[in-house]
Design brief:
The protein has nine helices and two strands; from the N terminus they run H-H-H-H-H-E-H-H-E-H-H. The protein has about 190 residues and is mainly alpha-helical. The two termini are about 30 Å apart.
Length: about 190
Amino acid sequence: MGKFTRAEWLHGMGLLEISSLPVLAQALRELDDLLICDKQALARSASTSSQAKKRGSASTKEPYNRTRYREYASDRKTAFADLYQFCFTLAKPPQARNIDLEMAMALWSVLLAPRYPIINDLITFLPAKGTYKGANKDIWNMVHEFCRAVDPSLSNYEADGAWPTLLDDFVAWMKSKAHDGAEPVPAKEE
């Protein structure tokens, strides 16, 4: 798993003007609400918009520099895609091409589950299937695209599309689960 150097951490905190843990926690909650939970962006108050010009009055100063937050709010789709890609790179061991399946599932549960509940079914399916050991960048990207493009009912899923086998197997499992009305256990391949 990736690491941040002290210099990188200090640089980032300096740009955001974050100097305490409570303010860092606030900034992370706000980003989580914006990018992960897809909640409404924070409104820009009249006093904070004039703050950029004055910079100094303690009564109007925001708790941290929200410039980056506002950039993310202006293009959430791109900001989330950047965060999603960053997480793959951060989780991937150096010199490796994949992240292990447990790490991928943990990240999907944090990054995708709040917006796309179908990911919870995929997370249930993968260990039960037992044949998948990791996620390469293509699988990582296609899982996100699958969540964005395919209806939760799977009605618009095209089996002859360019989906990876992992997702074809998952859809077949979900359809058999819906058809049988029971929780099927995926057949393990030897």
